[in-house]
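Re: [ENG-882] Designed sequences occasionally contain unexpected residues at chain ends

Forwarding the minimal case from QA. C-alpha cells:
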C-alpha cells in the first residue's frame, strides 16, 4: 500500500516539498526531484543520465560532499540527486562554484 501511494504521489505534478529556504546541510532520499522546489542560486538537480559519463571527475570538489552524491547517483542507480550548497558552511561559495561548473558542463540543471 505504501509503495502504491508513493508511486501515485510521484506521478503527481504538484510540488511536494520546498527546500528553497534551507540553510544547512540536507539529504533527501526516495523523493523525486520534480516534486521538490529548489533555489537555483545555490541548489541544482543532477539527473542520473547526465552523471553517468563522469564528465565531473576532474572538478576540484575540495571538502564538499557533492562528489559522493554524484558517485551515489551513478552507482546506486538513483533517478537523480539534488545538490544543495550549505549556506552555513565556510565552503558555501566553493560549493556554489561547483554547481555553476556542473551547469556549465551540462551535468546539473
Amino acid at each position: 500500500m505504501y509503495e502504491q501511494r508513493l508511486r501515485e504521489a510521484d506521478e503527481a505534478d504538484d510540488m511536494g516539498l520546498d527546500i528553497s529556504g534551507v540553510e544547512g546541510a540536507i539529504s533527501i532520499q526516495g523523493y523525486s526531484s520534480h516534486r521538490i522546489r529548489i533555489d537555483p542560486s545555490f541548489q541544482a538537480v543532477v539527473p542520473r543520465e547526465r552523471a553517468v559519463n563522469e564528465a565531473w571527475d576532474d572538478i576540484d570538489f575540495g571538502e564538499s560532499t557533492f562528489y559522493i552524491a554524484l558517485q551515489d547517483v551513478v552507482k546506486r542507480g538513483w533517478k537523480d540527486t539534488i545538490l544543495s550548497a550549505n549556506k552555513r558552511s565556510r565552503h558555501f561559495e566553493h560549493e556554489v562554484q561547483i554547481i555553476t561548473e556542473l551547469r556549465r558542463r551540462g551535468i546539473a540543471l
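QA comment: On inspection the terminal residues look reasonable. The beta strands are 17-18, 36-37, 43-47, 80-84. Proposing we downgrade this to a documentation issue.
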